[in-house]
Amino acid sequence: MRAVIDTNVLLSGLLWHGAPHVLLAHVRAGTLILVSSPALLAEMEAVISRAKFDVILTRSNTSREHALPELRQLAELIEPPPLAAPVCRDSDDDAVLALALAAQADLIVSGDDDQLSLRHHHGIPIVNSAQALQQIAK
Questions:
Q1: Using CB atoms within 10 A of its CB, is residue 77 exposed (0-12), middle (13-18) or buried (19+)?
Q2: pTM of the predicted structure, to 2 decimals
Q3: Which tens digits make up the pLDDT trace of 30-45?
Q4: Other CB atoms within 10 Å distance of the CB of residue 123
Q5: What b/e sequence results for 44-71 when a residue is b if at least 16 CB atoms lie within 10 Å of its CB, and e otherwise?
Q6: pLDDT reading at 85 higher than 80
Q7: Handedness of CA 21, 97, 125, 116 (dihedral sign)
């Protein structure tokens, strides 16, 4: 199963336990293929570099220097063309949708209400982490 996992879910998977963490375990085990793009990885790098994550990174026994290269190694990178027309209010959300289309993803996993409210994009389900785990279990 191929999945585009939004930055907010990946960050949660790296820093906390719960459904996003289990999703990342599936990626590490090879039972879920993480598809990403240079733009999404750059967004992750910008977000995880914020000072507010310093303490959380230490508590979660990880570091930026470990997490970012691991994500680059785990992900299948694709440079998607932009969508023909905007779908979401946030262009970053449109980048996720464009990536899913280009990657022929089976799922888009997000915690973003704007994305989740779409429910699907061109037949690709947009689900939260718990729903993604249910799909993987099928």
A1: middle
A2: 0.90
A3: 999 999 999 999 999 9
A4: 6
A5: beeebeeeebeeebeeeeeeeeebbeeb
A6: no
A7: positive
| 3-state class (DSSP) for residue 104 | coil
Q: Which residues contact 59 (CB under 8 A, 6 or more apart)?
A: none
- With contact defined as beta carbons under 8 Å apart, do 24 and 13 qualify? yes
Q: 74 is in which domain, residue-wise?
A: 2-137
Could you give the CA distance from residue 94 to residue 44 in angstroms, rounded to a whole number? 16
Structural domains of the chain, count = 1
Q: What is the CATH number of the domain that holds 104?
A: 3.40.50.1010
52-61 contacts: CB < 8 A, separation 24 or more?
Answer: 53/15, 56/15, 57/15, 60/14, 60/15, 60/16
Backbone angles phi, psi at 128, to 5 degrees: -85, 180
Contact 43, 68 (CB under 8 A): no
At 94, give phi and psi (nearest 5°): -65, -35
